[in-house]
Structure formats: C-alpha cells, structure tokens
C-alpha cells in the first residue's frame, strides 16, 4: 500500500509579494527549494500562519529570498504573512515508516537558518 507523506517543507517563510495578475503558482527562492528538497514545478500546499488559509499550487524558482504568491492565490495572502510550504510524496508503507522529510527553517528575511531531517512534537521555532 502507498501512503502520502510530507517530503519537504519550508517553515514560516515571509511572503514578499502577492501578484494577482501573474499566471499562477508560488515563486520561491532557489535556496528555499534546494534546502527543502522541493522541485521547481512541484505541486505544494501553502498554509498561511497568519490567516489560516490553505491552498494548493506549484512552485517556480525565483531570486534569493523570494516568496511570491501568484494568480488567484494572491487573494488569500498578504505580503508580510508567514507561510508554510509543504510538498508531499507517495511511498510504500515500509519506506514511509523510516522516512524523515527535509524541513527548512527560515528567518524573517527568508534566509535558511537550519535544515532538519524530520520533526518532533514540541519543536517551536
């Protein structure tokens, strides 16, 4: 049986721009994509920490520090909001039991400050 697991995550990035008239997607800086293991063009879920909105879109690689929601998603966030970006993957249950996602922790300027392998309860950053 296959199960859907968190593959990679950018934790609490700050939205730098919301561009309603762009075709669509979320633009993330290359360093955020690399640190989290999320690929350009990959489907992701975006969770807005400040207003609770959740949406699904795909990634575009952009300049360092960029977190820009494009197209209709721009109506659900504001520049300055903190977001969590999560990519999921399907894996067999045996592999999933030992799986540890890459979690990129970032500062208020969207600089990667730490990359974790997995998460544990009670970790607040």
From TrEMBL:
Family stated for the protein in its record: Belongs to the PanD family.
Function: Catalyzes the pyruvoyl-dependent decarboxylation of aspartate to produce beta-alanine.
Pathway: Cofactor biosynthesis; (R)-pantothenate biosynthesis; beta-alanine from L-aspartate: step 1/1
Keywords, comma-separated and alphabetical: Autocatalytic cleavage, Cytoplasm, Decarboxylase, Lyase, Pantothenate biosynthesis, Pyruvate, Schiff base, Zymogen
Cofactor note (record): Binds 1 pyruvoyl group covalently per subunit.
Processing after translation: Is synthesized initially as an inactive proenzyme, which is activated by self-cleavage at a specific serine bond to produce a beta-subunit with a hydroxyl group at its C-terminus and an alpha-subunit with a pyruvoyl group at its N-terminus.
Localization per Swiss-Prot or TrEMBL: Cytoplasm
Enzyme class: lyase
Ligand binding (substrate): 57, 71-73
Name assigned to this protein: Aspartate 1-decarboxylase
Gene Ontology BP terms: alanine biosynthetic process; pantothenate biosynthetic process
Modified residue annotations for Pyruvic acid (Ser): 25
Gene3D superfamilies: 2.40.40.20
């Amino acid at each position: 049986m296959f199960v859907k697991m968190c593959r990679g995550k950018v934790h609490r990035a700050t939205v730098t721009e919301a561009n309603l008239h762009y075709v669509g997607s979320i633009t993330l800086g290359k360093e955020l994509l690399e640190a989290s293991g999320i690929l350009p063009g990959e489907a992701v879920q975006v969770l807005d920490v400040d207003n609770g909105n959740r949406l699904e879109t795909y990634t575009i690689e952009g300049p360092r520090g960029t977190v820009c929601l494009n197209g209709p998603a721009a109506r659900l966030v504001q520049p300055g909001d903190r977001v969590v970006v999560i990519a999921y993957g399907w894996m067999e249950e045996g592999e999933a039991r030992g799986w540890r996602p890459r979690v990129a922790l970032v500062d208020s300027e969207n600089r990667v400050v730490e990359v974790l392998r997995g998460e544990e309860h009670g970790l607040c950053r």
